[in-house]
């Protein structure tokens, strides 16, 4: 890094020396931009070392240029600029950097080209304060020094930092051929020479379309390299007395350099903004194509017919499933309105359904008859939905799923299976493959409300594996996991009603929700589970029974508006605690005198029914 930094700094100084001798300024200073890009790709713990190396390199170059008294201070100003820029930018720049992202380009422009160079330029402009008085000419000199330093460093960061990142992360030029790359860069060089080798006509504007073509074809890194070429060639020719800047009457070389810097800065902004807009448009198009591909894949793979209609009933899209179900090709259906192939007796009902849907009214599925290509009528079911424009929010059309009613059960089973697969990600315990705590809580709240509405009984059961910690200590956690899976399987074999829910409540605890189940039914299920677990004969030498057993706490409630399912949980938990305290491998049932849920230890309740397994 130190060698490359030295080479860049020395080369920049040699190129700029001719301009300095002729009274000009440094057009572009690349060293800080290079070091800035290097640091943003390096671990932050190494930043102080790299800044120290940069300081020494900068100090050596300044000493060689004869700035002995100010060299340490100027080198320090450069490192302050680099350090401030990377400190402000590193949270916004990704790895690898992508300046086609609006946030990252904004960070480079704001911090790397505005804030940090302005601070460093302000500090550099103070170099003569110890040796001069505050006269007006002096203050004007300080302003010129600030402007010179600022523009050179800002343009250096704008061009060299993206170039370094392009090299560092091997970012190509948009996968173009080598012939096209070389041809475009030669075009930039030729256009630059054409503009700057003559001083009669102001042709500077010709460079903009050439640079824009370069950026569109090869990307942002190529734009930065093209700007660097224009800066070097244009700067040297301007120093030698050529180029459009010579048309400015009675101007100094410094003023002509300033005009070239302003042009490069404007061109840079235009090119970079155009690249961001182009990249965003490209990403949007790719996203739209991916979305369209997914939609077509789903539509063409589905056995249901997907139809998109306008608000007035005209067909906009029909999926290929129409051929399998009715025999028509999608193009044949698109050429007609939906009424043309509907049975006369069903046409009015379907028309009313679509009109209600377009008006935003709630609709229900409708079964109707549609004519096949063979001439007979086939029963379909439609369930239209209104969709809206994502930008305006206004109704844009109707999407309808047409289903062959004869195969409805099969199709519904497939959809339910697919839905369950998706739902498993959030609702199924990964170890035991039964419901998790989240699904248990949601189901309990829903079933409680239903029990309040219907006035039916609801039973809850909490189960806990006896001496499970000792089991893990004796046989290891892998065996513990297998034990929990076997217990869950035993519970699943007993709890078979569709309305019931078995869930892993947490750790070695399980829970059951048994809607419309009285005390005797819940007790029967608990005893069957305890027996099924014992029957598995899972060896457990730390258990008095020598096999794995479970304890259960059960409560049966009649839910009321003034009660809460949390009371039922607390009652079941207290019953479970009592089962554990009374020797484990048993069921304890909590049931209040008036049929509502309560604490089994409350004095107003009769003695709890303890059932030993």
Automatic annotation (TrEMBL):
<dbReference type="InterPro" id="IPR050469">
    <property type="entry name" value="Diguanylate_Cyclase"/>
</dbReference>
<keyword id="KW-0472">Membrane</keyword>
<dbReference type="GO" id="GO:1902201">
    <property type="term" value="P:negative regulation of bacterial-type flagellum-dependent cell motility"/>
</dbReference>
<dbReference type="InterPro" id="IPR000700">
    <property type="entry name" value="PAS-assoc_C"/>
</dbReference>
<feature type="domain" description="PAC">
    <location>
        <begin position="364"/>
        <end position="417"/>
    </location>
</feature>
<feature type="transmembrane region" description="Helical">
    <location>
        <begin position="204"/>
        <end position="233"/>
    </location>
</feature>
<feature type="transmembrane region" description="Helical">
    <location>
        <begin position="144"/>
        <end position="166"/>
    </location>
</feature>
<dbReference type="InterPro" id="IPR013655">
    <property type="entry name" value="PAS_fold_3"/>
</dbReference>
<keyword id="KW-1003">Cell membrane</keyword>
<protein>
    <recommendedName>
        <fullName>diguanylate cyclase</fullName>
        <ecNumber>2.7.7.65</ecNumber>
    </recommendedName>
</protein>
<feature type="domain" description="GGDEF">
    <location>
        <begin position="456"/>
        <end position="592"/>
    </location>
</feature>
<keyword id="KW-0812">Transmembrane</keyword>
<dbReference type="InterPro" id="IPR007895">
    <property type="entry name" value="MASE1"/>
</dbReference>
<dbReference type="InterPro" id="IPR035965">
    <property type="entry name" value="PAS-like_dom_sf"/>
</dbReference>
<dbReference type="GO" id="GO:0052621">
    <property type="term" value="F:diguanylate cyclase activity"/>
</dbReference>
<feature type="transmembrane region" description="Helical">
    <location>
        <begin position="105"/>
        <end position="132"/>
    </location>
</feature>
<feature type="transmembrane region" description="Helical">
    <location>
        <begin position="73"/>
        <end position="93"/>
    </location>
</feature>
<dbReference type="Pfam" id="PF05231">
    <property type="entry name" value="MASE1"/>
</dbReference>
<feature type="domain" description="PAS">
    <location>
        <begin position="291"/>
        <end position="361"/>
    </location>
</feature>
<feature type="transmembrane region" description="Helical">
    <location>
        <begin position="178"/>
        <end position="197"/>
    </location>
</feature>
<keyword id="KW-1133">Transmembrane helix</keyword>
<feature type="region of interest" description="Disordered">
    <location>
        <begin position="591"/>
        <end position="613"/>
    </location>
</feature>
<dbReference type="InterPro" id="IPR029787">
    <property type="entry name" value="Nucleotide_cyclase"/>
</dbReference>
<dbReference type="Pfam" id="PF08447">
    <property type="entry name" value="PAS_3"/>
</dbReference>
<dbReference type="InterPro" id="IPR000014">
    <property type="entry name" value="PAS"/>
</dbReference>
<dbReference type="InterPro" id="IPR043128">
    <property type="entry name" value="Rev_trsase/Diguanyl_cyclase"/>
</dbReference>
<feature type="transmembrane region" description="Helical">
    <location>
        <begin position="253"/>
        <end position="274"/>
    </location>
</feature>
<dbReference type="Pfam" id="PF00990">
    <property type="entry name" value="GGDEF"/>
</dbReference>
<feature type="transmembrane region" description="Helical">
    <location>
        <begin position="48"/>
        <end position="66"/>
    </location>
</feature>
<dbReference type="InterPro" id="IPR000160">
    <property type="entry name" value="GGDEF_dom"/>
</dbReference>
<dbReference type="GO" id="GO:0005886">
    <property type="term" value="C:plasma membrane"/>
</dbReference>
<dbReference type="GO" id="GO:0043709">
    <property type="term" value="P:cell adhesion involved in single-species biofilm formation"/>
</dbReference>
<feature type="compositionally biased region" description="Polar residues">
    <location>
        <begin position="599"/>
        <end position="613"/>
    </location>
</feature>
């Amino acid at each position: 890094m130190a060698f490359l930094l030295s080479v860049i700094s020395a080369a920049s100084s040699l190129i700029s020396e001719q301009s300095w001798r002729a009274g000009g300024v440094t057009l572009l200073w690349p060293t800080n931009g290079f070091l800035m890009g290097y640091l943003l790709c390096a671990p932050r713990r190494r930043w102080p070392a790299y800044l120290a190396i940069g300081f020494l390199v900068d100090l050596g170059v300044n000493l060689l240029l004869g700035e002995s008294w100010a060299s340490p201070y100027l080198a320090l100003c450069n490192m302050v600029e680099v350090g401030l820029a990377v400190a402000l930018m590193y949270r916004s720049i990704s790895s690898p950097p992508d300046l086609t992202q609006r946030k990252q380009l904004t960070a480079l422009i704001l911090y790397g080209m505005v804030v940090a160079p302005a601070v460093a330029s302000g500090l550099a402009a103070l170099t003569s304060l110890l040796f001069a008085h505050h006269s007006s000419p002096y203050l004007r000199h300080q302003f010129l020094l600030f402007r010179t330093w600022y523009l050179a460093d800002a343009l250096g960061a704008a061009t060299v930092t993206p170039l370094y990142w392009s090299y560092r992360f091997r970012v190509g030029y948009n996968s173009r051929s080598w012939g096209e790359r070389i041809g475009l860069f030669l075009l930039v060089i030729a256009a630059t020479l054409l503009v700057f080798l003559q001083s009669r006509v102001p042709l500077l504007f010709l460079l903009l379309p050439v640079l824009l073509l370069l950026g569109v074809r090869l990307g942002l890194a190529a734009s930065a390299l093209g700007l660097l070429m224009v800066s070097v060639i244009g700067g040297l020719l301007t120093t030698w007395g050529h180029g459009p800047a010579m048309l400015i009457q009675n101007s100094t070389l410094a003023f002509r350099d300033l005009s070239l810097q302003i042009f490069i800065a404007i061109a840079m902004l235009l090119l970079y903004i155009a690249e961001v807009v182009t990249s965003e448009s490209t990403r949007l198009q790719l996203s739209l194509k991916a979305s369209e591909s997914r939609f077509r894949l789903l539509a063409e793979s589905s056995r249901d017919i997907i139809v998109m209609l306008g608000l007035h009933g005209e067909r906009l899209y029909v999926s290929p499933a129409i051929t399998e179900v009715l025999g028509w090709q999608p193009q044949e259906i698109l050429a007609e309105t939906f009424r043309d192939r509907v049975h006369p007796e069903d046409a009015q009902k379907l028309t009313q359904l679509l009109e209600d849907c377009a008006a935003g009214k709630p609709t229900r599925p409708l079964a109707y008859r549609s004519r096949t290509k063979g001439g007979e009528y086939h029963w379909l079911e439609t369930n239209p939905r209104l969709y809206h424009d994502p930008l305006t929010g206004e109704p844009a059309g109707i999407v309808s799923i047409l289903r062959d009613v004869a195969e409805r059960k099969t199709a519904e089973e497939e959809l339910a299976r697919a839905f369950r697969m998706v739902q498993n990600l959030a609702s199924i315990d990964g170890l035991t493959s039964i419901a998790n705590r989240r699904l248990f809580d949601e189901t309990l709240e829903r079933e409680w409300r239903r029990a309040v509405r219907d006035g039916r009984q609801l039973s809850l059961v909490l189960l806990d594996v006896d001496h499970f910690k000792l089991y893990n200590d004796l046989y290891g956690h892998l065996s513990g996991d297998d034990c929990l899976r076997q217990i869950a399987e035993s519970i699943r074999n007993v709890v078979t009603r569709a309305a019931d829910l078995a869930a892993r409540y947490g750790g070695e605890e399980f829970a059951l929700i048994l809607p419309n189940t009285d005390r005797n039914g819940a007790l029967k299920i608990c005893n069957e589970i305890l027996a099924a677990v014992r029957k598995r004969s899972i060896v457990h030498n730390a258990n008095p029974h020598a096999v794995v057993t479970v304890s259960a706490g059960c409560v049966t409630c009649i839910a009321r508006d003034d009660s809460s399912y949390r009371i039922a949980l607390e009652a079941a938990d207290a019953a479970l605690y009592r089962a554990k305290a009374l020797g484990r491998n048993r069921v304890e049932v909590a049931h209040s005198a008036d049929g509502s849920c309560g604490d089994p230890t409350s004095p107003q309740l009769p003695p709890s029914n303890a059932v030993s397994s």
